Please model this.
Amino acid sequence: MSTTITNDQTISPVTDFLPLEGTDYVEFYVGNAKQAAHYYMSAFGFQALAYAGPETGMKDRASYAVRQHQLTFVLTTPLKPGNPVADHIAKHGDGVRSLSLRVPDAKKAWEETTKRGARSCMEPTRLKDKDGELVMSGIHTYGDTIHLFIERKNYRGAFMPGYRPWNNPYFQPADTGLLYVDHCVGNVGWNQMNPWVKFYEEVMGFKNILSFDDEDISTEYSALMSKVMSSGNGFVKFPINEPAEGKKKSQVEEYLDFYNGEGCQHVALATNDIVRTVTALQSRGVEFLKVPTTYYDELLDRVGPIEEDLAPLRELGILVDRDHEGYLLQLFSKPVEDRPTLFFEIIQRKGAKSFGKGNFKALFEAIEREQEARGNL
Model:
């Protein structure tokens, strides 16, 4: 089988029962939120935004929100054992808890998804402070990952009620050019990809716009399968991976073993200048996967002319691929936790709407070299 591509046209507002305005924020449950926030500020260029904890009335946890352009991360840690945050970390280690989505009507989003079969994790809730009113609701998805629906049309504050402004006048790291969430990839168990594709189709009105089978995504040793789900307007994309049979353990199997279940494998962060962004990230200590330099020997023959000079791409290890609408540049970090689970992708799109199929073999061989070094291949 070959890659299949379906029509990626916008669904009309009449038929799009769950209009999404984009990713509002990504929340991570972590063992030490204060230190994690400092890491994303110092290494990735985020700025301090807001804080919630005992001082703001939240007694069982502390959360730090950091922001860079339209990209917001929330780092949350438990203050005592025996609560859902502590249980999540005990099971999974640090990882993504919520992929929160901006909607025009959080109550309607919850009603539409739950009546189509979603399991509720938060009924519509109104939060108020001096800056107005924010409405949020939520549903469960794969593993312990949730989607929160965030309605901000009547809220003027920097983040949300329950948080206070947070800044550190002595630490103002320069940004690295990261702009917004391009897509978020979920890893699910054996034979679970299609059931979750059906969930996103039926419960959230998404379309399957790309499919990759084990011939597309394979090396000598391992394979996986993936389908890309997109919201009606294309603002939110969730590729879903599952393992496929191979000679050795695939990256998805390694993730499932160490995360102790299904979850978000990586978050792709968009930039308009990947050379500048990756240079800045590397200078701050972010480690990236490397492909052999021979990857670049015939790169231009494969992808055609590009605007960028090849030398800095080769030096930084940036990958390039082309589809019928343009090309993209991408690079993947090594896992940012001690467990080989969560990592980040840096992506710059020059017209391309695909996900780098031409780079799969080189990329996955690089991942396998890391797995072998850990003894997990």
About this structure: The chain has two domains: 22-165, 178-374.
